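Sample intake sheet
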Amino acid sequence: MAEITAEAVRALRERTDLPMMECKKALTEAGGDQEKAVQILKERVKGLKVKVSDRMTSEGRVATLSKADGSAAVMIEVQCESAPVAKSEGFTQLCDQLTKQYLNGPGAASVEELLGQGCPDKPGVTLRELHEEVLNKIRENIVISRILKVDGPVASYTHHDGTLGVLFQAAGTGKPEALRDVAMHIAALSPTVCLPENLNPEAVAAERERLTVEARATGKPENILSKMVDGKMRIYFSGEGVLTAQPFAKDDSKSVEQALAAVGYKAVGFTRWRLGKP
């Protein structure tokens, strides 16, 4: 039987970032051959993935990243089993590498396609290999559950606890930081739709008709009625959760629509993800 030296164990640990005892066992099984030991450990990772795959993942992070010029942004949800793991170095590094590659790489139509790409900061290592490395080290089920990339103008925001992420898309030209303020507004105030036209048109028409009848009952001139109705419709839209009609969180003397217009933008759409919820 080949002698397994401490130096050989340390060398394998540096390559795999796995516990010393596991590295020693793999080297022993491989007769001291480093490459065979690496393959043995990779097979064990596959076995571990099967073993933990049915465990519930109720913790994790919704990670976002945008380009400095606002030309693109990404959002990725990565789930794990426990809150401490969601804040661990290995887990946050995985989120970081996933978002960087998705934003700056060739893009991906699926999680599997993204995992086949390389890690931006770890040459020669794929995202799948990094995922397996972190899973084997942490020993929890770790699932990349959904990914989204949006072209700009766009801004992203992740809430400080990592459980909520937003991508906000606009049209126009202006400073990207203004869009981030709206993304933060969306995270805080939970609008249901972006624009009035996103609401049920029949419900909107019925409400406008009701308000028109109510306004006519005041006996005021016809040229004033439309302004009255429009004003009350803005209140209605805000109450229905229309983003552009909501008072802007950073300056509630303006609506979100007015705040955007002041810096050269119009709202187009948004995506708001709460961890583990559709």
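Comment: DSSP finds eleven helices and ten strands in the chain. The longest strand covers residues 265-274.
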